[in-house]
Amino acid sequence: MHVAIAGNIGAGKTTLTRLLAKHFNWEAQFEDVLENPYLEDFYNQMERWSFNLQVYFLNSRFRQILDIRKSGKDIIQDRTIYEDAFIFAPNLHAMGLMTNRDFNNYSSLFNLMERVTEAPDLLIYLRSSIPNLVAQIHKRGRDYESSISIDYLSRLNERYEAWIATYDKGNLLIIDVDNINFVDNPEDLGEIINKIDAEINGLF
Question: Alpha-carbon Rg of the chain, whole angstroms?
């Protein structure tokens, strides 16, 4: 069983990954943020480091997917390879922060990887408004995220919604996180778990 959580920066992916891993006794695979050597440089100088950052994430995520399938374990993954390829990289390209040459190179690399990549059995998308994302980003207080603009988050949100509207690679569960608090309210978490149970039971 491979479950993945998708969503914009600050939507609550990592927190929900931890909670669901604990509840279902799944192994959690997290996004390589702390070890990422490009992230801080990227937020300080996006145009210079965008390609390096995206290739690092692509490599990290591809490695995760290969390990997940090889392990045979039940795994929940924080963010997917598709978000890198269909949201973050195209957004940087559209904003003029990644050159045509680099974007074409990146896209070619992803297309090659996708040919040997299996989609998750269940994708959970955390839908969030911009004010909620901003509040969550400020709350966790990561220094390198302090320069993220509302315009940048809005562009990402638009791409997320467009991607999810056409997602057809497997089962999809959409959770609107604006009006729930799955961290402090056990009932909200329980409701999410019930929805996931229903999806999983439908897989078998």
Answer: 17
pLDDT, mean over the chain: 91
Rounded to whole angstroms, how far apart are CA atoms 167 and 172? 8
pLDDT tens figures, 179-189:
899 988 899 99
Domain 2-203, CATH class in plain words: alpha beta
Catalytic residues: 78
Domain regions of the chain by residue span: 2-203
35 vs 30, 60, 186, CA distance in Å? 11, 11, 32
Strands of 122-127's sheet in order across: 27-29, 75-78, 2-7, 122-127, 171-176
7-28: per-residue pLDDT in tens?
A: 999 899 999 999 999 999 999 9
